[in-house]
Automatic annotation (TrEMBL):
InterPro entries: PABS (IPR030374), PABS_CS (IPR030373), SAM-dependent_MTases_sf (IPR029063), Spermi_synthase (IPR001045), Spermidine_synt_N (IPR035246), Spermidine_synt_N_sf (IPR037163). It comes from the Bacteria. It is an enzyme of class 2 (transferase). S-methyl-5'-thioadenosine binds at Q31, E106, D137, G138, P162. Spermidine binds at H62, D86, D155, S156, T157, E158. It catalyses: S-adenosyl 3-(methylsulfanyl)propylamine + putrescine = S-methyl-5'-thioadenosine + spermidine + H(+). This is Polyamine aminopropyltransferase. GO terms for biological process: spermidine biosynthetic process. GO terms for cellular component: cytosol. Keywords: Cytoplasm, Polyamine biosynthesis, Spermidine biosynthesis, Transferase. The lineage of its organism: Bacteria, Bacillati, Bacillota, Bacilli, Bacillales.
């Protein structure tokens, strides 16, 4: 008998995968956490019934969250990741030689624990000596920080449950305060097929907080619609003005210098979401 899981991505649409094994099914202090093995995408982390990451396509998301802002900033020595307990963004951050310290603030320690156990190729860098892992509320961490980070990456779930506050203008203003004078931040901002109003609101809020604001996209098959967006806010540096000399020769599977620039070329219906 086959067991299938369906993520109901909208009221009328979902994505389905065949489950070959269930490792964990647990209600943590914050959310329902499931770690399963799938026939198509390998091990998969689910939070509140939503696909967070899979072994097969995780590199797209993690590379695009990390390398775009890290190449935009000329000297990203101290980096913060809010969320991202699976460790994939941290793994990519550590590929940059300028980074001296990467701080991870994840509210749910169970995400870290089970990712280390069942997603070792993603979470393996969490034990690196340059990484400071904190099980804490990222919103509160930002509120207490000032002029501390070169780059901040918000690797959150969709705006439900513990992540709701991570999509507010007050949070972006807190991020601006937590960044140094030439700091850069990026956040995942869902997909333009089903979440137009969210992207439009976030882009407006970030634009009112940061002098440079850009939207870029990537293709992630297990995320709703497959087309995913990211919003970058910068106090000084424009991701479109990165010189060729800035790009490191990194071991990546999706991100390249050409992709860095091409990701900001938006389809018209997506571009319109950034226009007031």
């Amino acid at each position: 008998m086959s067991i299938w899981f369906t993520e109901k991505q909208t009221e009328h649409f979902g994505i389905t995968a065949r489950i070959t094994k269930t490792y964990v099914s647990e209600q943590t202090d914050f959310q329902q956490l499931d770690m399963v093995e799938t026939a198509e995408f390998g091990n998969m982390l689910l939070l509140d019934g939503m696909v967070m990451t899979t072994e097969k396509d995780e590199f797209v998301y993690h590379e695009m969250v990390a390398h775009v802002p890290l190449h935009t900033h000329p000297n990203p020595e101290h980096v913060l990741v809010v969320g991202g307990g699976d460790g994939g963004v941290i793994r990519e951050i550590l590929k940059h030689p300028e980074v001296k310290k990467a701080t991870l603030v994840e509210i749910d320690g169970k995400v870290i624990e089970y990712s280390k156990q069942y997603l070792p190729t993603i979470a393996g860098a969490l034990d690196d000596p340059r990484v400071d892992v904190q099980v804490a509320d990222g919103f509160m961490h930002i509120a207490k920080s000032e002029n501390e980070y070169d780059v901040i990456m918000v690797d959150s779930t969709e705006p439900v449950g513990p992540a709701v506050n991570l999509f507010t203008k007050g949070f972006y203003e807190g991020i601006s305060k937590a960044l140094k004078e030439d700091g850069v931040f990026v956040a995942q901002t869902d997909n333009p097929w089903f979440q137009k109003s969210l992207i439009k609101t976030v882009f407006k809020d970030v634009s009112e907080t940061f002098p440079v604001t850009r939207l870029y996209t990537a293709n992630i098959p297990t995320y709703p619609s497959g087309l995913w967006s990211f919003t970058i806010g910068s106090k000084k540096h424009d991701p479109l003005d990165v010189s060729d000399e800035r790009f490191h020769d990194l071991a990546t599977q999706y991100y390249t210098p050409a992709i860095h620039k091409a990701a900001f070329a938006l389809p018209k219906f997506v571009q319109e979401l950034t226009e007031s």
